[in-house]
Amino acid sequence: MKFVHNDLLTCPLDQHALQLDGDCLRCESGHAFDVGKQGYVNLLGAADKRSRDPGDDKEMVAARRNFLSDGHYQPIAERLTRLVEPLITRDYIIVDAGCGEGYYLQQLAAQIAVSSAWEPSMIGFDISKWAVQAATRRIATTWLVASNRNIPLAVSSVDCLLSLFGFPVFNSFQSVLKEDGRLLMVDAGPQHLVELRKVIYPEVRRSDSTILQQAYAAGFLQGETSTLQFRTAPLSQLQIHQLLSMTPHLFRATREGKERAARLDQFSVTVDVVFQWLHSGGDT
Ligand SMILES: C[S@@+](CC[C@H](N)C(=O)[O-])C[C@H]1O[C@@H](n2cnc3c(N)ncnc32)[C@H](O)[C@@H]1O
Q1: Residue 186 CA, closest ligand 1 atom number
Q2: What's the CATH code of the domain at 201?
Q3: CA-based, 20 to 30 A from 80: which of 22, 43, 118, 254?
């Protein structure tokens, strides 16, 4: 495992610094965490779990991995690089919070390697061990099983946090970001997958998100916003199933809606994504 910044990691049980000691990470109170042969370390405390197998399950991870590997969301990864790359300086630290199976960090690393003068350190973590196991197969970097609610990273250590289609916990994000740190949120816009939503729901609703209000309440300051819209190539039945399986629509759609979606083939959808920068207020 390539621990790019081992000194940044903290114990999820008492927040003391972790030190590499043979095959494990240990804090001064003696809490130890095995560095798995698979290339990640599990820093999810028992209190951070809300279920026995938290986060995306094995099938959802496989669906997302296959769909993203086919390149359908590559324009999102390209826009991500365009937004993040100009910020990178020496010793820059990027953390993908809720990294899923690692597609975006892999794309970012590959694109930055071609065009940036600096090689940033990258850390990805997710609450799903299945997602993190899959991520270790994408690139060698620091992958952690961990929760947004208790991020096992030193206070004020991170330059850039990414939360793509994630479940942000703004107080934790504030705590690990440097005073001049930034958070990039990437979320679905109003037209996202609208064609598929029309098939699976009797009525397509616009969700009124309060997420930015939560961010401001935690001390974040609004930064630049940009949007990206494109249509996918026609998707096969299998790809539509994978797409549905990697979104919350899998749980929300009715049985009839899912049956209608299962009959779709060579079906193109609109991708509508909002990129929102938030600046750490540096006041927590
Ligand atoms: C919709 S997926 C997005 C994954 C990835 N960012 C992407 O866009 O491909 C949401 C991810 O958040 C993870 N997740 C859910 N709750 C979390 C938490 N409290 N802390 C960290 N990750 C969490 C899930 O396991 C899942 O991998």
Answers
A1: 8
A2: 3.40.50.150
A3: 43
